[in-house]
Amino acid sequence: xxxxxxxxxxxxxxxxxxxxxxxxxxxxxxxxxxxxxxxxxxxxxxxxxxxxxxxxxxxxxxxxxxxxxxxxxxxxxxxxxxxxxxxxxxxxxxxxxxxxxxxxxxxxxxxxxxxxxxxxxxxxxxxxxxxxxxxxxxxxxxxxxxxxxxxxxxxxxxxxxxxxxxxxxxxxxxxxxxxxxxxxxxxxxxxxxxxxxxxxxxxxxxxxxxxxxxxxxxxxxxxxxxxxxxxxxxxxxxxxxxxxxxxxxxxxxxxxxxxxxxxxxxxxxxxxxxxxxxxxxxxxxxxxxxxxxxxxxxxxxxxxxxxxxxxxxxxxxxxxxxxxxxxxxxxxxxxxxxxxxxxxxxxxxxxxxxxxxxxxxxxxxxxxxxxxxxxxxxxxxxxxxxxxxxxxx
Amino acid sequence: xxxxxxxxxxxxxxxxxxxxxxxxxxxxxxxxxxxxxxxxxxxxxxxxxxxxxxxxxxxxxxxxxxxxxxxxxxxxxxxxxxxxxxxxxxxxxxxxxxxxxxxxxxxxxxxxxxxxxxxxxxxxxxxxxxxxxxxxxxxxxxxxxxxxxxxxxxxxxxxxxxxxxxxxxxxxxxxxxxxxxxxxxxxxxxxxxxxxxxxxxxxxxxxxxxxxxxxxxxxxxxxxxxxxxxxxxxxxxxxxxxxxxxxxxxxxxxxxxxxxxxxxxxxxxxxxxxxxxxxxxxxxxxxxxxxxxxxxxxxxxxxxxxxxxxxxxxxxxxxxxxxxxxxxxxxxxxxxxxxxxxxxxxxxxxxxxxxxxxxxxxxxxxxxxxxxxxxxxxxxxxxxxxxxxxxxx
Amino acid sequence: xxxxxxxxxxxxxxxxxxxxxxxxxxxxxxxxxxxxxxxxxxxxxxxxxxxxxxxxxxxxxxxxxxxxxxxxxxxxxxxxxxxxxxxxxxxxxxxxxxxxxxxxxxxxxxxxxxxxxxxxxxxxxxxxxxxxxxxxxxxxxxxxxxxxxxxxxxxxxxxxxxxxxxxxxxxxxxxxxxxxxxxxxxxxxxxxxxxxxxxxxxxxxxxxxxxxxxxxxxxxxxxxxxxxxxxxxxxxxxxxxxxxxxxxxxxxxxxxxxxxxxxxxxxxxxxxxxxxxxxxxxxxxxxxxxxxxxxxxxxxxxxxxxxxxxxxxxxxxxxxxxxxxxxxxxxxxxxxxxxxxxxxxxxxxxxxxxxxxxxxxxxxxxxxxxxxxxxxxxxxxxxxxxxxxxxxx
Amino acid sequence: xxxxxxxxxxxxxxxxxxxxxxxxxxxxxxxxxxxxxxxxxxxxxxxxxxxxxxxxxxxxxxxxxxxxxxxxxxxxxxxxxxxxxxxxxxxxxxxxxxxxxxxxxxxxxxxxxxxxxxxxxxxxxxxxxxxxxxxxxxxxxxxxxxxxxxxxxxxxxxxxxxxxxxxxxxxxxxxxxxxxxxxxxxxxxxxxxxxxxxxxxxxxxxxxxxxxxxxxxxxxxxxxxxxxxxxxxxxxxxxxxxxxxxxxxxxxxxxxxxxxxxxxxxxxxxxxxxxxxxxxxxxxxxxxxxxxxxxxxxxxxxxxxxxxxxxxxxxxxxxxxxxxxxxxxxxxxxxxxxxxxxxxxxxxxxxxxxxxxxxxxxxxxxxxxxxxxxxxxxxxxxxxxxxxxxxxx
Lengths: 393, 393, 393, 393
What we know:
The structure is a homotetramer. Chain A is built from eleven helices and twelve strands. Chain A is α+β, with helices and mostly antiparallel strands. The first copy, chain A, has three domains: about 10-95, Butyryl-Coa Dehydrogenase, subunit A, domain 1; about 130-235, Butyryl-CoA Dehydrogenase, subunit A, domain 2 (Beta Barrel), CATH 2.40.110; about 240-385, Butyryl-CoA Dehydrogenase, subunit A, domain 3. In chain A, the strands form four sheets. Chain A has a four-stranded mixed sheet, with helices on one face. A four-stranded antiparallel sheet of chain A has the order 4-5-9-8, with no helix packed on it. Chain A has a two-stranded antiparallel ribbon with strand order 1-2. In chain A, a hairpin with a 3-residue loop joins strand 6 (about 175-180) and strand 7. In chain A, helix 1 runs parallel beside helix 3, helix 5 (about 100-110) packs antiparallel against helix 7 (about 235-270) and helix 9 packs antiparallel against helix 10 (about 355-360). The radius of gyration of chain A is 21 Å and the shape is globular. In chain A, about 60% of the residues are buried. Chains in contact: A-B, A-C, A-D, B-C, B-D, C-D. At the A-C interface, helix 8 of A face helix 8 of C. Chains A, B, C, D: It holds the Pfam family Acyl-CoA_dh_M. Chains A, B, C, D: Keywords: FAD, Flavoprotein, Oxidoreductase.
């Protein structure tokens, strides 16, 4: 039943989050407690407290863990609004990688693991990180190149290896760690981050500055984890990564859609007030067409997100759909932000507006969770295999 | 209620049209009764008879006139399938401009006008044309430049002027004619095409060859129409044009989506069988990525169509939405067809496959019903006027 | 010595060809003796006679064979001007494949072969074709897949195989044929086209209509050639193909540059005269920017051609340079022609101007002589091999 | 005489600069004395001393002021090499705006003004700034909106106004100031920067970090300048701005060409060493094609620069040519840098390589010295005015 309307409860949620972001979070954007590796702890706690008071903390989590149990379509609505401020996802506890980690724990963890890790995550008391990516010659775009090992050691395991691009590592309370187990293969483990044998060697300098804890280089040197710290079953690491994969990709799309809409709104506002060559710059087609293209790109990004979210809500992994959505959305939104910079002229590359910041923060989006090239390669394989062009859009 | 599923009756219709096109129409594509100005009358009658027997003639018309009274969403499903063959829209009587003319007559005509013109159109007995566009300095992209006049003359009117790009003119049974009435402004009139004072001076040579009757230059030289031949009210011509506008634009999108999907399918098939440099050409990323991009462009085209169709089904003119959809779809599908040509290599520009034909037929799509530039200009005006970015995707 | 000026003799030649095309050839464009497979023989003879009288026939040929012995840079100047009319290259005898074939014969043929074939070619008395491409599973983009065989037979050879996309086949007087010789490998042979054992099975339907003789499917079924009909040495076929390759690619670029400039000029003229929405359409930035982009694309195309021509004039095969130029030029000119169509609006896709014809004729340019994808692949190999980025631009 | 070779003295200079950058400057890139507003003074002095010792300081200046008096073509060669390190232009004293300011002073200043300002600039003892751009509603892309005033005051002038985007303001020793003189119009003035009445209110936060002194907001509040501080004649400010304009635009292109080549080289190196999915990533066409496109974009950028430099060397303002070159080069190089980021995957957006820094530094290039849109608008006006398409490429 082709339908693009929002059910009343989602329309209400959308309005509520929009209002919350506008009145509670955007005024915090000038807060100086932010650095090259994201908002500092004290700022984060202030933001979370605001979301908690507004009843908007962790809306994606199940009711059992304090959330609203939003469907993927519901997340599409709420996360776009959250993303309208770069601080919104932090406030509402829906930023990466925590949001995806919570999703994975809900799907795979034991009750005891959930109580230990999911509850404090959902309640905003700790942050987490997801330790998969490795420097060359380890696992990057190609996860099969995994080098980190988990060696049986008494009743538990000893983990050794080097990871990087570990978002949120600095300051995280827990880690999900992908390591290779002899004879079993890739396996996920849970660990507290302050355990002996884990070192955050450094935070990487990055163009983006919106992720709490930045992106760390993390060394595992004889980290001991117990038998109860295996997440799910031995050798199922890649399968679980796939459970996490499509939703995690898609929530990136949702949040960045909000950010791109923000950049566009700033550009529109400028085009409606700045004069050049005898008229408002927005009345120059060179600018007006850019704004029209922005509107179209925001539209197709939203449609692609909604379609993929709906597909996930029907069940299934939606790997092909989420690859498609990731490429469509990340490239469309990048065009929006790049055009918004250009419309602003000189100011576009300065701190006079938020657009330069969104521009720098968003460049990684076409790379993280699989560069466009890897997704196109994967889509091509589906197509050549003869999988039918889908009926469902 | 965000939903991308088809209700059972549409799913059934989709399957039925797909089957009809595959088994009844595609085999007719090699029929020689086609020329530079579209399928000839005898071929058209054969095709229509097939659709009639299959119960698929004029599905967009109301039940009163023999159709299924499809919603816009329903048309999106049926017309995409029809478009999969360049002959499909002719067979099912859903090609331009007749489909849009029927839509307009249902909305505006008197019962007597409907009985005289809508019924034989819906039953496939006659074709029609829509006489609006004029050569310079008359009405092109800017309809306000209308030069054709309708002068009061006894109880009726005398029409004088020159039109061109009149699709379907040669062989049409009736015409809707836009002319300027003194003191009233742009007004639509109905006339039989064999009336004295109408001359189809010539058929224009065009890249496309899929429109029955081609595109004519039509001269009105003292054409007499009666008082009862005014369509709707005097001076309302541009308003009625808007009633026709969004749906007509959008059904173009639907049909060409089918055609582009056809081109893509042919390219995929080739990529799965032709070898070069030691592997299937589809296994070269240069080709595989093109197919992936095709799939993504088909996807966003379909989503944009569905969204605009749904908006029309909620009522309203959807002018902004249909401008947006027209640009998104026409540009996305053009990329699909251009890539499909490229994937086929040398064969792409030959008659060895249907792709070169679709390529030539489709180039006008970025121009007809408003070039992309006019739509971008119109969208920019909406944006600068401060009309809110819509919630509904 | 970085220098973009023309020496006086080239400036004079440029002016002379420009004048010839404007006054002698463009008036012939409306001549009806043209069909889907190019200008007919009688038209071709008329055109050649005009060039002969103007002293502009075969200017690329050596003085010994009646030409001017133009350098590659000189060809760049003359062929661009010739290409300004789609009939210009035919008139001046510089069209494909004859121009490239003459180049190859000058480089490789024996004196006797030159007397027999090069002289009548250069004098415009016969046409030729180059028989390399084969249908699947034979040699397409990947020439190593060559299937046609030349079997020793008495003092000569017997040739068997099937070729297609053989430009100019219908009506050609001679053929250069690539075939595989046992133990030696790919070898080129010369044959008259009316020999027993050669059949032009059909002319392929193509989007382009500017090549005399169209593009044929040619069957060799026991064709006998003599010992003296080997072009150069046995097994050197691919090496000779490379001698022909870069210059042939580049002269395509030169001619199409002229054609694209023509399309642009027509669009500019239209933009300076057609009104819409209260001003000349060229004053709308949406149109003006397209014209500016055209000018920039024509500029980079010309620069890339000149650079590659200069490189060839220094000696060497210039394979990397000509791959680069082919991609840059074919893609830039395609954008020019596509924009010119769009600027013209509805007329762009009709026979009202020459632009639709140039559009259809030029689509193959991104494919013939190696699709862009094959050239990018080849460039990437050069780059990865660590060949230095060149100093010489 | 179409020629792309370098004369021996330029070939020697190219080799010498390349060597200097590789061995003297690149090792300094890790020097910590750099911040958000460019290299600090101490670092700058170290760099300049190296260039001075190498005989490579201010090579564009006339011999009278210690330089080599390079032609524009000579600058194209030397500045590209300088730009290969982001510190190179600072070291060789060829960065913006100083290089352009020196050019202007050589062309317009009196001997006394030259002695006072040009000499210490050319010798690297002071820096300068060019105060033209103003915040809304003042002069931005449209210089005619100039608001800053110069009021006659005794024998001299009193200057009042607000400027921003004043590159190099913080730490500059002198300023060229554009102000409106009653009855005369826009006029340029010279002033020391430590004069009363000049305040650098703040340095703007910008994506780029390579300009010494950053980009300042500069207030003139009753600045007094003498009669001898007028640069050239009253009311000629815009004419002189045009003298500076084309060369200044073009030297930006030259320096950024070097920077983009650096980014490409880093990407190539990565593609030749990193493995994924069973082969080197450069062997994936998705990566290899990006490198091929980079090579082509670098090529057309270099050609467009050389052509415009040669045009300037023939005399004249080359306004149309430099608009064209600015758009071609800034857009081509941006594509190069964006692709280089993408090829590097996650590392592309980090400080692990220099590419992210070049990416951030270069975004302003499509805006500074006229956004692409303003240049396209200007080119369109030339075209519509009927100015002939040039013969000289």
